[in-house]
Amino acid sequence: MIHRLRFLLPAAMALGVLALASACGGGVSSSDKTATAAAKPAATGTPAAGATGTAAPLSGKLEIFSWWTTGGEAAGLQELFKLYGTMCSPNVDIVNSTVAGGGGAAARQVLTTRMLGNDPPGSFQVHMGHELTDTWVTTNYMESLDSLYTQQGWSNVFPKGVLDIVSYQGKPYAVPVNIHRANVLWYNKSVFTANNLQPPTTLDEFFTVADALKAKGITPLALGDVEAFASVQLMETTLLGKLGATGYDGLWTGATDWNSAQVTDALTTYKKMLDYVNSDHSSLSWDQANDLVISGKAAMTIMGDWLEGDNKAKKFTDYGWLPSPGTAGMYDALSDTFGLPKSAPNRDAVVCWLKVVGSKQGQEAFNPLKGSICARTDCDASKFDAYLQSAMADWKKDTIVPSLAHGAAVSQGWLTGVSDAVTAFVADKNVATLQSRLADACKGAKVCK
Fold first, then answer.
1. Taking all residues of the chain, what is their mean pLDDT, rounded to a whole number?
2. What CA–CA distances, in Å, run from 41 to 71, 92, 122, 218, 343?
3. Whole-structure pTM over 0.90, yes or no?
4. CATH 1.10.340.30 for the 181-332+401-444 domain, yes or no
């Protein structure tokens, strides 16, 4: 199971992910018809909870735990709640338990306390990969979902590579609701037009553009790293841009030496990028940094495509996008998933929630608002905007690599070491110290010698 996202490369893409473009022409798959048929009785009092035969009507409370509190992510979550009322039961009281904070660091702390105290929510948001498996599956806190996957036919509509990442020892433990991309440069079109500039595709171009903007009193790159994930994510996209997919992947397997000159060069470039960010970055969240771009006070930001959902919620349309500098042809991926904790209250209601999350109808309602693409391969592309259609096209052809900041590339313990090192670096800008601490984090994870 270790580092499976690295293997969403040619073989896995050919088997599963390449189906995305050709299968996105609409219509209802046979598996989705099964899910819809199973859910229909719930609206009239019979639950679609996975049990066979007659079951009691779904009622009571269903607690859904997440960190989706801003803009498009909150709007997308509400759409799933609405669908639950029609696909499962209107008699279930959904408790929307959210803990604010981009990237979910604060939410994970609260969740850990609750899970260890045998007080799990009904279901909770968790990134696929190590955040899911290392934290909750191998520690025996989650139920396997193999029977639900079989019942819903999900093995036929989720790409094989994605199935691998939500599975442990051959059994799935979570339902992916989306695919996000971390390496996106977003820019204010009017700012670029007014200053006769073109958005940068390479790191060299970035610094040329950044110097021109800075000379005119415009913040080149908006950053909001009050939550550490934003500065870690900026570092990961810089590493990807300098090292390429193979070199970047090697950081998580030991094939790329953290002490190498190539990594030194990449971290030096990262340091240089930080010279062009807003001075108040440490007091802003990622979406507040985006407000600087929306207002024209800043020209660009590098952030995952959940930012597009924020733009939609704020009715901002004057934006463009590109892969972050140097990363064209690479897709830095992560996914939000939901699972079934052992001892979850109101288990049948939780199972029906998972059916909604995994359904074609649910993913088509949620993702256009969230700013992400379906994890399923049969979604109707016409329901998505221009950016998301471009992401669908890139997902099928680009080299896929795992996000560091969002728990796909490394274990949580390793990520904590990285986050601590980056937080210190953003303050002191000491490349040698950062590189040494990153190498030590790899050693601590028993990946590097």
1. 89
2. 33, 14, 21, 57, 26
3. no
4. no
